[in-house]
Amino acid sequence: MLASFGLPFFILAFIYLTIGIYPGSSRSILASDAFSQFSNFHASFRNAMLGKQSFLYSWHASLGLNYLSLISYYLGGVFTPFVLFFPNQLMPDALYFLTLLKVGSAGLAFWFYAKHTFAIDKWAHVTLAVSYALMSFIIAHSEIIMWIDALIYLPLIIWGIDRLLLLQKPRVLFFSYLLLFISSFYMGFMIGIFSVLYFLVRLISNFKTNKSKILPYGITSILAGGASMIIILPAVLDLRTNGEELTQITQLKTEATNFLDIFMKNMIGVYDTTKYGSIPFIYIGLLPLTFCLFYFVTKSIAHKEKILFAALFAILIASFYLVPLNLFWQGMHAPNMFLFRYAYLFSFLVIMLAGYGWEQFKPEYWPRLVAVLISLMLLFCFAMGLRGDNEYTYVKFGSFVLTICFLLLYILVFTFTAKDSFTKKTARILLLAVVCCEAAINTNGMVRGILNDWNYASRSLYTEPYPAIKNLVDQTKTSNQTFYRLENLDPVSSNDSFNYGYSGISMFSSIRNRHSSSYLDRLGFRSRGTNLNIRYANNTLLMDGFTGIKYNLTTTPLNKFGFKEKAKEAAYQLYENDYALPLAFLTDASVTKVIQPENDNLTSQTNLVNALSGENLHYFDFYPLSVVKTDNTTVTNNGNFLRLTEEKANIAKDITWSLTIPAHRQAYLSLYPEDFAELESSTVTILINGQKRKTQINISGQYYDLGYYDKETTITFTASFYGTKSIGLQNPQVVTLDTTAYEKAMKRLQQNGVPLTTGNRSATGNFSAKEDQLLITTIPFDKGWQVKIDGKKVPITAFQDAFLAVKVKAGKHNITLRYLPPGFILGVALFISCLVLFYFFDRFYQKKR
Question: Which of 392, 516, 791, 841 is geometrically suited to a Cys-Cys bond with 802, CB 3.0 to 4.6 A?
């Protein structure tokens, strides 16, 4: 048991050590989404455990979010509470230990399954457990830490089905299903489908004996699923409102796949990418692969059983190549990178059948096993010989050589075993050592693949800014009794608000309120497509005021009208906005008829603010630019679009402009790409008045701040583009905001403001309405909100299908808003009732047995 947990744990820890990752190391384990998402989400979970926010709702997730839904997708595992022992600043270490703990637990879980399933030597159980825990899928996707939980429960669920079929004992199955669904409804869907197929295989292979188990299996599964509704039901209801549309099937074959994929991805250390254009990660070890094939060639296993498992293999392999099946496993939704997310089911099927094949192996069968090993060698040679010159370039010759060498090693080990050259125990330990060595080499290939593909971020990027940001954020909390928002112009990541506990705009999450994000996109906060991302950077002062951005953090001096410096901490400065609106404000009900064009965010901003304030003011003016000079840039202008093409590769394309800004204006450079698809990770750095600010063009907004000017001023500024050979832009121009008009509108709105004091999942306040009006909040509309005015429940509505609003009568009132995720009460009731029902079902079934 200790070996099954400890060997994968320490092998992975050793591989991390070889690239400089260990507790307190300068290089962190944060790669890919682990840096921006999982570190911050786990930090927010710790905040919730400490009572700093609710487990049901978070004000710190962009404008506000159903936090239980986020937990269900990102944080539902039983290991997550261990983050309590790590301060938020040390979250990289928390994820390091959680990754090792989960990988070790996967090995332990498979050992329990193997020990009670396969009649093989105890060290053989450990050998299979190590192979399972260090399969390519787990390590190659180790940065997606939430997925590992599901692979812990997969062998326990299959063991639970076997116990139900053979021993009429449903408890392991029930609790494994329950923990799986609570940990990850997404992976739970895939494993749920696979486990049903496995049950059908067992049922058909021995229908006469197993048909009586159909009802117990169905009852156990349904009750486990019902109990998991405490997490799943609120998540499903949220996804119905905010989830993406199902992916349209436009082709039959999956992209980038080829007929040699199965061979190539079963070689040692083969890593292509986890971005787009990858093929499935299915490697789980050469020894399991060998015994899986041996399972099909041994004569002691019934042909019917072999055919059924071969059919299950055929379904999985066909899914790799056929788009409809591929999408089905992933909920009919094409994944955003990290493709073929169900590929671990293929690996599990390999190692499961390997266990059954190993059971049948005897020393006198070694010629047949050697024949399998030699056949594998020939197949790998065949695959390498058939690949084209430009195909499978990521399969290095060293991987092929290692694969052949280890197959030869296994031939030698089993040959010595057959000839009694070693004692049985010595042979098993030797075999375990060879498997551990192979697993370590493959793990090294996967980890270094991640390093090259995504890079493991420096710890300092995460930890060094933490004290300054945290102290300044805490200062704002002590200075405010009512709700406000804050944004960092030099963020650590897009999800800083989760970590530091402030409310802002920016967020990168699969769980989001798509309606509010889509509306903010129309108002200039870029959130394109499926609203997976939303960014605060590069919008206007009008939207700072409307969304209640009271504070900005920055590492460079800020020149924004109405923002005054309040504090400094290390590299960061805190600025306070005099014109931020409260969380709610009163306005005329006719505001619901305001016209807001889809593709003209400045007109949308103007119309919205004028409608809310009752004014009719002109805010924005446009000015053409004069090019002063260019550097490493060829400029082409076709009238509507400007194209900048680099002259030397991998050097920034610089263009310098000049313009005279009128008095009392906030100036912005307007940069809108001609084609977002060509941008990739293209960045722009604006140099103005000696200050630089860098943003990613396809993610951040359109209006790059050039500063506030209270007198007529001629400015010269430079834009440096980097990341693509050329970039096309709608003719760049400067947009100016009339700060006099802006100040008048904001003061009018502040007079109508309704400051609210927020609790963990509530908001309260008092207001006085001179007439029947509409109270609009900048709280994202969600059906989980309940509003009471003077203690009486009132209906709510969605302003622009985005924000919570409520009609109010004239007079003085008290308002209370409280949030409860839709379906949560029913989910709790199902959780309790299904646990009780299973208790009585289990007692009845045991007595019957």
Answer: 516
Q: Which among 178, 210, 211, 217 is positioned nearest to 196, based on CA atoms?
A: 217
Beta strand pairing status for 620-623 and 733-738? antiparallel
Residue-wise pLDDT tens digits, 678-709: 887 789 999 998 888 899 898 899 999 999 99
State how beta strands 57-58 and 27-31 pair: unpaired
Amino acid code (one letter) for 541: L
Residue type, 97: F
Distances (CA, A) of 269 to 22, 317, 321, 781: 22, 21, 23, 48
Identify which of 649, 650, 645, 700 has the alpha carbon closest to the alpha carbon of residue 670. Answer: 700
Q: What is the DSSP letter of 245?
A: P
In this structure, are strands 57-58 and 65-66 parallel, antiparallel, or unpaired? antiparallel
> What average pLDDT does the segment 808-828 reach?
96
Other Cβ atoms less than 10 A from the Cβ of 836: the count is 12
Dist CA 752 CA 637 (whole Å): 47
Q: From CA 492, how far away is CA 571, in angstroms rounded?
A: 13
* Contact indicator for 526, 548 with CB cutoff of 8 Å: no
Taking CA 170 as the corner, what is the angle to CA 164 and CA 171, rounded to the nearest 5 degrees?
A: 140
Contact at 8 Å (CB) between 34 and 141? no
Backbone angles phi, psi at 716, to 5 degrees: -125, 130
- 713-734: b (≥16 Cβ within 10 Å) or e: eebebbbbbbbbeebbbeebbb
- Asked if residue 486 lies in contact with residue 552, where contact means CB atoms within 8 angstroms, the answer is yes
The per-residue pLDDT for range 71-89, each reduced to its tens digit, is 999 999 999 999 999 999 9
Residue with tokens 């090019």: 627
Residue with tokens 């999408």: 327
Q: Domains in the chain, start-ordered, CATH in brackets?
A: 466-580 (no CATH), 626-731 (2.60.120.260)
Using one digit for the tens of pLDDT, what is the confidence trace for 428-454?
Answer: 888 999 999 999 999 999 999 999 999
Residue 471 to residue 486: CA distance in whole angstroms: 14
pLDDT at 420 over 70: no
CA distance 300 to 320: 31
| 161: helix, strand or coil | helix
Quick check: 653 and 682 in contact, CB under 8 A? Answer: no
**Token digits of residue 127:** 């050998």
Place of tokens 């056949």: 375
Cα–Cα distance, 97 to 245 (Å, whole number): 36
pLDDT in tens, 327-336: 999 999 888 8
* CA 355 – CA 332 distance, rounded (Å): 33
Return the structure tokens found at 749.
């709105």
Q: Rounded to an integer, what distance in angstroms lies between the CA atom of residue 198 and that of residue 183? A: 21
